[in-house]
Structure formats: C-alpha cells, structure tokens
Design brief:
The chain is about 20% helix and about 30% strand. It has ten helices and 25 strands. Strand 16 and strand 17 form a beta hairpin. Helix 4 packs across helix 10 and helix 8 crosses helix 9.
C-alpha cells in the first residue's frame, strides 16, 4: 500500500469522528433570554468554522485550539412562536421549538427541588398544567472536583400534564404567576439538591469577595474535599458550583430564585456573609452585577435543640434582603407546618417570589410585593415604636391582638410584650420592663406564628432590633 493511500485510510476515521457538539443546557424547547445578548457555544475540531442561525440572525466563529467556539446572538424581543436554531460546523445540529422570553435559575436545597407532585393539590395542579410557554430543565446531582463544561441532562421539557409533575414546584408556581402577568415564555433551570449547604453552590470569586469568609477563601485549593474512592464530598465548598452551576455558563439568565438554609441552621449572622458570597459570586460568573436574586425565608419548623437557632438565620436572611441590592425575600411564617420541614403550599411561595420580580423587573410599580419589613425601633419613655417598610394597611391577620412581641430589659432578660398599631406604626410595651427596654423582637422562636401583616395580607418578617437602631 502506498504511503499516500495509507495516509488517506488513517485519515478516514478522524474525518468521520469530527462532530459539532453542544452543552446539554442548549437544546430543543429551550427559552433564550429576551432583550440580552445570548451566547451560543459548543465544541468542534480546532479551526473549524461554526455558523449559528436563528430568528433571522447568522453568526460564525472558529473553534479555538481546545475546540471551543462561541457566538453571541444579538438581543431579541420575546417570541412565543417556536423556531429552529441551527448550528453547522463539522456536522449540523438542529434545535427545534426554541422560544425567547425570561429565564430564571431555581436553586437551593429540598424545598426548591420539591416537585409539583409532592405539593398541595397535586392531582388538580398537574391536570391543569397546560402552559406550553413554560419550559423546565432539571440539572442532575453532580458534584465535581473541577469546574465542568457540561453536565448531562434530560433536556428542556414543555409544561403539560405529562411533564409538570416533576418540575420544581416553587419555580413552576413562580413561572405560572409571572407568565400570566407578562405574557411571554418563561424558562426554568432547576439546579438544586435536597439537604445541601450554601457553601458548595458558591464560586471561588464569591468567597474571595467577603472578608468574613477568609478561612475558606485562603484555602480554596483544598476544596472540594474527597469522599470515598475518587468521590467528591458534595457538601464541601465549590463542589456543586463546579458540577451544577459552572456547566451552565455562559447561558444568559434574567435572575435567580433561592430556597435554602435549613442545612446551615444555627449559624446566625454568619449565614448573611455566606449569602453575600453566593450572590456576589453568581453575579460575577453570570456577568451581571445587578442580577436579581429573590429568596425564601425559612418557614417555622420544630427542629431539635435550641428553638432560638432558627430565628438567628431569619435575621441573617432579613439582613441580606435589606443590605444586598437587587434582592427580595418571600416570608412564609403564615404558610407553614411545624411538623413538616417541606410545607406543601408551594403555590403561595412561588407567587410571592413572582411579586418581587413583577415589581422590580417588570414594571408593576403599584404592586404590593413584600410584607412589612422592620425599619427602625424608636425608644419613647417605656415604649418602643416600630416603623416598617411596606406597611400600608398594617393589621393583625386574624383580627386578634398582635402576638409574639418581646422586649428586653436592661438586665438582658426578655419578656413577653403587648403590641398595637397606631398611625401606621407598632407600639410595643411591657410592664416587666417599664423602666426602659433596650431591644425588641418579634417571632423569635422556631414555632412562632406572628400575625402582623399589611393590607395585602403579606406577613411581616421576624426580627430582633436594639432600641434606637435599624437594620
């Protein structure tokens, strides 16, 4: 056999193996983010020119030395009519039924992963889940030692009675309410894992941005930690960012929904620092300094141990909502089950998150989107006078006396206190601290059922505050 013929024979398998590949986050039925540049990327033989065609656009790029290529679709308006997206390189890949709308990342632990089939009224909800403009993709549980470029999945699913049962319930009810108001397609990326802590979801740049987490930031080369034979401890820092968030990059999203904290219960204000790290980190890696981040305050539940541990994390979440820009918090003290760490009413949770998005991102300025959030505690003689944001129409939810208020005396002891509403403020008093209280709190017990709401019926967050101070 001649050398030339031998070369051709050896070259044939190489030519046959050349293939244009896409990450699993890019697939048929996906939703692309409206009004933003949308990266489309993948892999091919180095030097191969790849052309992406969609919605009247055509963009080309060459695969680099590592075989990666990327093009950027220019900003597009929402489009509810599915169209084909074609990628042509060494081979041709066609994605069908691609929409343009709003894309939200749904992350956290089990209360975010909790499915529609596990939540309230499942049979009725599933039967009525005829919302083809809502799409969902579930990212599988996959910790990793290193940042991954792809993660296998079952792809994007069109919402229907045949598919909705396995959607994230909080995400689905968020999307359903949002879509009914703004009338555009909604895409949900379900990257969540029950029982997980916040640290594994956080990227390196996030830890480095928060001085209080220097102990982690200075030792990032030690994370994630191993487990078993070649396994990865999925609870260690970076593990789930590497395996379940990094593979999504640089997919363009509108914002993030977060329901997590049960696994960090007991950390108090340290959890606030960890939320700062997560949010800073995601805003960096998703290349959006103002990425909306809306989260759920943990619901009351009868944990073991000190019943004051849970209020400590409530205060951390409340502080995050007050201090970190472009965030919002859905309070759930009124839709809980003290014997079930997974309250079934995910409908109201999703709706309350959607209220934040509608008000802050979709121009619904006259919408009441939050329950009362304490602003200040003013001492006047023997009383503490509380002022709240989002306080129009303050009242007791059940028409009874305001409950779960306490005052702290100068000796450091806490005592039950009475409270009433006067001219849009809450006045708190107690005969036990008649010589002048030094602090006030509400709902400071893991089983608390405070009843302060605003005119829209949205509940106030539990809190603790020193007299004369604010958050």
């Amino acid at each position: 056999m001649s050398k030339r013929l031998l070369s051709l024979v050896l070259l044939v398998p190489f030519l046959l193996s050349a293939e244009t590949k896409l990450p699993s986050i890019l697939g048929s039925h996906m939703v692309l983010q409206q009004g933003s540049v949308c990266p489309i990327w993948g892999w091919d033989e180095p030097g191969t020119e790849v052309t992406v065609t969609f919605a009247g656009q055509s963009h080309s790029a060459k695969a680099d030395k590592a075989g990666r290529w990327q093009v950027n679709l220019t900003a597009m308006p929402a489009n509810a009519k599915g169209a084909a997206l074609t990628v042509k390189g060494s081979s041709t890949v066609k994605l069908d039924d691609v929409l343009v709308g709003e894309v939200w990342l749904c992350s956290g632990q089990s209360n975010m992963e909790w499915r529609v089939r596990q939540s309230a009224n499942p049979q009725e909800e599933i039967a009525n889940a005829k919302h083809p403009l809502i799409r969902h993709i579930k990212i599988p549980h996959r910790p990793s030692k290193q940042p991954e470029n792809d993660v296998p999945s079952d792809g994007w699913k069109v919402c229907s009675p045949a598919t909705a049962a396995d959607f994230t319930a909080v995400g689905y009810y968020f999307a359903r309410h949002l879509q009914s108001e703004i009338k555009v397609p909604i895409g949900l990326i379900g990257s969540n894992w029950g029982g997980t802590r916040i640290e594994p979801w956080t990227p390196p740049v996030g830890f480095k941005s928060v001085p209080a987490l220097k102990d982690i930031a200075d030792n990032l080369d030690k994370f994630p930690t191993p487990r078993g034979n070649n396994g990865v401890n999925h609870q260690s820092p970076l593990a789930l960012y590497n395996g379940m968030i990094h593979p999504l990059l640089p997919y363009k999203i509108k914002g993030a929904l977060w329901y997590q904290g049960e696994s960090n219960n007991g950390e108090g204000m340290l959890y606030y620092e960890k939320m700062r790290a997560l949010i800073n980190g995601w805003r960096t890696v998703f290349n959006d300094k103002e990425l909306p981040f809306y989260f759920v305050q943990l619901a009351p539940f009868t944990y073991g141990g000190d019943p004051k541990r849970l209020p400590g994390i409530w205060q951390a979440q409340l502080t995050a909502a007050k201090r970190i820009p472009h965030t919002g918090m859905a309070v759930t003290t009124d839709i809980t089950n003290l014997r079930d760490i997974h309250p079934k009413n995910k409908q109201d949770v999703g709706k309350r998150l959607a209220l934040w998005a509608l008000a802050k991102n979709y121009g619904k300025k006259d919408l009441v989107h939050s329950g009362p959030i304490v602003q200040s505690a003013r001492l006047k003689e023997y009383r503490i006078i509380l002022k709240f944001d989002h306080a129009e129409g303050l009242k007791a939810r059940d028409g009874k006396f305001l409950r779960t208020f306490e005052l702290q005396g100068k000796d450091g002891k806490w005592f039950p206190a009475g409270a009433y509403i006067d001219k849009g403020e809450v006045i708190v008093t107690s005969k036990a601290v008649f010589d002048g209280p030094v602090a006030v709190r509400m709902g400071w017990d893991q089983r608390a059922n405070p009843n302060l709401v605003n005119g829209a019926g949205l509940p106030a967050s539990p809190f603790t505050m020193k007299a004369g101070k604010g958050l």
